[in-house]
Each structure stands twice: as C-alpha cells, then as structure tokens.
Amino acid sequence: MRDVIVVGGGLAGLVAALRLRRAGLHTTLVHMGRGGLQLGQGTIDVLGYRPSLVAHPLTELGEFCALEERRGGPTHPYNLLGVEPVRVGVGFLRELVGEAMAGDIETNVLLPTALGGLRPTTLYPASMAAGTVSLDPSDPGALHDGSRVVVVGIEQLKDFSCQLVAQNLATIELPGGGRLETRSASVSFPGRGTEADSNAVAIARALDRPERRRDFVAALGRLARRGETIAVPNVLGLTDETFTAIADGLGRPVFEIPLPPPGVAGMRLTDRLTDLARAYRVEMILGSRVIGAETGLGRIRSLRLGTAGHETDLEARYVLLAPGGFESGAIELDSYGRLHEPALGLPLAVPDAELLNDSWAGEQPIFRTGVATDCTMRVVEPATGEPVHENLYAAGGFLAGAQRWDEKSGEGIALASAVRAADSIIEQLKES
Fold first, then answer.
1. Quick check: 4 and 20 in contact, CB under 8 A?
2. What is the pLDDT of residues 232-249, one digit of tens each?
3. 2-53+66-81+283-431 CATH, one of 3.20.20.80, 3.50.50.60, 3.30.499.10, 1.10.287.130
4. pTM tops 0.90
C-alpha cells in the first residue's frame, strides 16, 4: 500500500511530494494538469503587503497575523503556521533548486513589472537578480538612483511594450531616493521562421538553440550603451542554462521582466521540480481528477480517480490535498450562489461577510473560502475544529483565510503548509 497520495501539481503539491519521498515514503502524486506555477512569475512571495509595503516579511509576519486575527472570519494560514514553518518551507525550496533562485527570506526586494511598476517579492529567479531594487536604504541594490537601464522589446512579442515600461520606471521614486535613467529599444526576433506574432514560449524555445541565441546576443550587444543594464521580457530560455549563456555572451548585467501567463520563469521552476520528483521516484499520475473516496472508521481508505474511460481506486495510509482553489476548479460556486468542494464534499470555511461586492479594486471575501485545518494541516470541521478524517491533510491555495493576490503571500503559504503537512504525516507514520 502507498504511504501517501498527494493531490495537485502546483508548488505545494510538488514540494510536499518531494518532502515525503525524501523521507523514504512511498508517495504518489496525482494531478490533472501542469499546476499553477506557470501562471505565475517564477517568484516566491512570502508577504508583500499588510496592507502597507513589507520590507522584512518574517519580522513583520507577527503584526500581520495580529491584524488578521482581529479581522475575524476564516483563520489565515499564517496564523496557524507561525514564522518557523515559513522559514523551513522556503529553506527547503532553496535546498531543492539551489542557485536557480536568488534572494533572502529575511528581506523583500522590488522587481519591475510588465507595466513598468515595481512589486515586492522575497525569492526570485537568478535571471531577475540584476533588476532588483532594495527596500533597505543602507543597501544600494542592483538598481538604484542613477542606474541606467535600456528596456529592450521584441517586435514580434505583442505582450510587452518597452516604451511603456521604460517611461513608467523612470517616474518612480525609489525607496532609497532618486530615480532610474531609462530608455527603450527593440529588436526583431521571431520565435519561428518569419512569423509576425510570436509568444513568449516560442521565443524562449528558440533561444534554447545556440545558433539563435548567438543572433539574439549580438542584437542586444549592438543596442546597449556603455554602463547600461539590459532589461528584456521573460523569454530567455526554458532552461536556466540559456540565461547563463546569454548573460555570459553579453558580458554586462541583464535581467528579465515577468510577462502575463504563461510565465516562462514559472515553467522553468515547474520543470525543475517535476524533474526532481521523477529523479526521487515519486509515482506520478497525470490527467486524472479525484472524484470520490472510500471512507471508514474516521479515515480515508482510498481515493477514486476519474481517468480516461474508467475509474481507478488508489489506496493509501494518508492523503494530502493541494489542488488549488477557485482558479483550478477545486472550489466551486454554483448558479444558486452555493460554495462547495466537488471532489470529496469537504466542509468549507466561508467568510461571514457578503462574498462578492461591486468594488473592482477592493477585497472580494469569496476568495478567503477554503478548507479549515489545525496547526498540523489536518483538515477539520470549521465550526468545531474536529478532524474530518484522521488521515486527511491540506496545503496551498486550498486553505481558507488568505487573499493571496492582495497580500503577495501565495508561495509562502504554499511552501510552509506543504512542508508542515508532509512533516506531520512523516511524524504520524514514525509513531505507527
């Protein structure tokens, strides 16, 4: 019999499966698709706003949790987890991916966006390191007052306006004072053949080929002036090695600016974690959806999967759910305004406030909906705190209580809850 079934192919699911497998447990990862990482920017947001800008996420987490406790409603995952699981979870990811990620869990930085703004994050791909702006006045950061940046667009890539980015970046007062000196330029680089419109993935795939990469590096080199840092859209290859080759070829600082989904940096992180899961011999079942479970004596005995043409039952001692939230279909709102969890019919923690309102820029309480857990990440009844099933745990975007987009907390919650849930299961199996 399997020790654990992990459901979900996003950051929480992959990291939980790797944590369990590295502890020697027979682990099966079930996921319907590629997970949400490639919809993101490849960064790790621990806490960006509370609601003011956060410079030191772990230091300010306590105050954030106090504010969340006073707010009421479903308990925020960080209130259940505390600081140390966040530190352990982020540290485990750093251990897994090594130098592919840069940054310091103690300190946020600002990264340029595809609209020419600056947003906070904690860890970021090494390909974005040369574009960081420090939130610490004593640390000049990679970009600072007077830094010269040429924002280079690609004529065939319509999702990125180099003029817009350069103009907006030049207007921003930096945390340490002063402004950047920016200008824009563009190169012609079709992803395939002579196509007029290319997407980021096609261009990234082309840059993985050495002969195309050399042409691109030569074009950038002709545009850049002495002392300038080069900013390009997030297209510098589907492998980390491609960025390294481009940076070495240019011989000057270069960084990527994230784009709308699919995010190439997020795809790189997905591929790296998936390759690690295969290397550690995590059993992977792709393209299957959980449609039910057999239960008895307060435990889940098996999960029922809907696969092509038939149903399959998988037995396991423990189940860890990390299927995401509304965006992945793990939580649904029907035409009668009722919220439900479609796979297992689990009870949901729902905010007391009106779930949806007409404020386009304000909080929509519905997105705080999710499953409730105790501090070990075991799924519990929201009203009583009693376990729903003794061997059922949850992690990631499935958890209630957070507004991940507003808080910039999604990856921090995913990592902390995934590692905490995995460690809880490991402890339970050691005791049995």
1. yes
2. 999 999 999 999 999 999
3. 3.50.50.60
4. yes
